[in-house]
């Protein structure tokens, strides 16, 4: 009896599996649409403007943190005051 059941299930597995997967997918999609908020917030600045601002900030930081050209400038006593 067990062997016959296994053969029937294995033979009709795609026919049984596809509708079950469709039903479960629809239920999951419905639950997700109820639970989550799909609204996209309004951007105050465009992505290009944010990138330009970030690049300007990086350039300013690089100007502030210049590497000393020689090792003698590294330990300058004037900076220690």
Which features does this protein show?
81 residues, mainly alpha, 4 helices, transmembrane helix
Strand and helix map with partners:
Layout: H1 2-11, H2 13-35, H3 47-64, H4 71-74
Keywords: Membrane, Transmembrane, Transmembrane helix
Membrane topology: Single-pass membrane protein
Organism: Brachionus calyciflorus
Report on the structure:
With 81 residues, this protein is an all-alpha fold. The protein has a domain at 1-34. 68% of the residues lie in helices and 0% in strands. The chain contains 4 helices and no strands. The radius of gyration is 32 Å and the shape is elongated. The mean pLDDT is 81. One of its GO terms (cellular component) is membrane. It is found in: Membrane. Belongs to the SMIM12 family. The chain crosses the membrane at residues 12-31. Keywords: Membrane, Transmembrane, Transmembrane helix.
- Determine the number of helices (DSSP H or I, runs of at least 4 residues): 4
Measured as a percent range, the helix fraction is 55-70%
Kindly, what is the distance between the CA atoms of the first and last residues, rounded to a whole number of angstroms?
93 Å
SSE topology string: HHHH
Beta-strand content estimate: under 5%
Largest sheet: none
Radius of gyration over C-alpha positions, nearest whole angstrom: 32 Å
Mean pLDDT: 81
Gross morphology is elongated
Unreliable segments (pLDDT under 50, ≥5 consecutive)?
none
Q: Please count the beta strands (DSSP E, at least 2 residues each).
A: 0
Structural class determined from secondary elements: mainly alpha
């Amino acid at each position: 009896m067990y062997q016959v059941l296994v053969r029937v299930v294995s033979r009709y597995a795609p026919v049984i599996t596809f509708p079950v997967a469709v039903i479960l997918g629809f239920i999951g999609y419905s639950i997700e649409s109820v639970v989550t908020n799909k609204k996209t917030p309004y951007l105050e600045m465009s992505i290009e403007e944010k990138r330009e601002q970030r690049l300007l900030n990086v350039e300013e930081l690089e100007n502030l943190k210049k590497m000393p050209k020689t090792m003698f400038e590294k330990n300058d006593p004037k900076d220690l005051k």
